[in-house]
Prior knowledge:
Blueprint: H1 11-23, H2 26-33, H3 37-51, E1 56-59, E2 62-65, H4 67-92, E3 97-103, H5 105-112, H6 116-122, E4 126-132, E5 146-151, E6 158-172, E7 193-196, H7 202-209, E8 221-223, H8 226-234, E9 239-243, H9 244-253, E10 257-258, E11 264-275, H10 282-299
Parallel strand pairs: 3-4, 3-5, 7-8, 7-9
Antiparallel strand pairs: 1-2, 5-11, 6-9, 6-10, 6-11
Amino acid sequence: MLTSRKFFPSISSLRALEALDRLGSASAVAEELALTQSAVSRQLQTLEGQMGVELIRRDRKRLSLTPAAQDYVTEIREALNRIAQASLRLQVAPAGGTVNLAILPTFGMRWLMPRLPEFSRLHPDITINMTTRLRPFNFATEPFDAALHFGEPDWPGTDRLLLKSERVLPVCAPGLLPHGAPKSPGDLLRLPLLHIQTRPRAWQDWFAQMGVACPETLPGTLYDQFATIGQAALHGLGVALLPNYVVEQDLATGRLVAAYPDAVETLGAYYLVWPRARGNDPSLRAFRHWLAAQAEPEEGLPR
């Protein structure tokens, strides 16, 4: 390990450089770090002097990073995130452990959340912190130990646990079908279709599984989450292709009806994924083993 002080700049200086790269102005950096602009400037000058490298371009009152500084920030951002993550674990659960989990909002709320009280009862010393993420991310630059993921098991640099397969069903408000459900799946092409951003080809895949030829591009409105697309369906804006676990209550109460009765299995599945480097973390290992017991008996999934 390098021991010369030259190679250990202050955290304050590194945070100022990282924030300038991310925010683009000294005033924004000063606001985020609760410093004056002159203090930010001094932090950056100190860092340049210590490194012996020009890091900042000064054009009148505007500051920007040199190419060398941009490359440097890419590496130190990961280190700063890891320091923050380690400090959070130390402060939040000094007597036990912590798992910082990225969740898919609907799956997290409908599938994971009702089960968590049992985990808390079995492992009262482990804290589960949850934050919503809709798409895959780089674990090296985000403060997460694991994530709930839908899709193929292809997240680079991770190991995985299969949690749940998924079947989807086309549903809509009863008023959208005054004469009853269509007699063939192709009839749905004449109805307004609702789409979700994270699964842009969901309808094309459904029609293909039903043996129906459809255009490569299907018209319709676009939504970012199951919660919003579900509300659109409830209010009669169109037909939504939704997982069974999302719509079962609304189907049971009659707020939604099946626009076609056949649910089909999607091409993806739900997984817990985690970076290989954290695979032996005791808290994550306990959470993973508990989740495996939740998934296998209820869903009958292959291991």
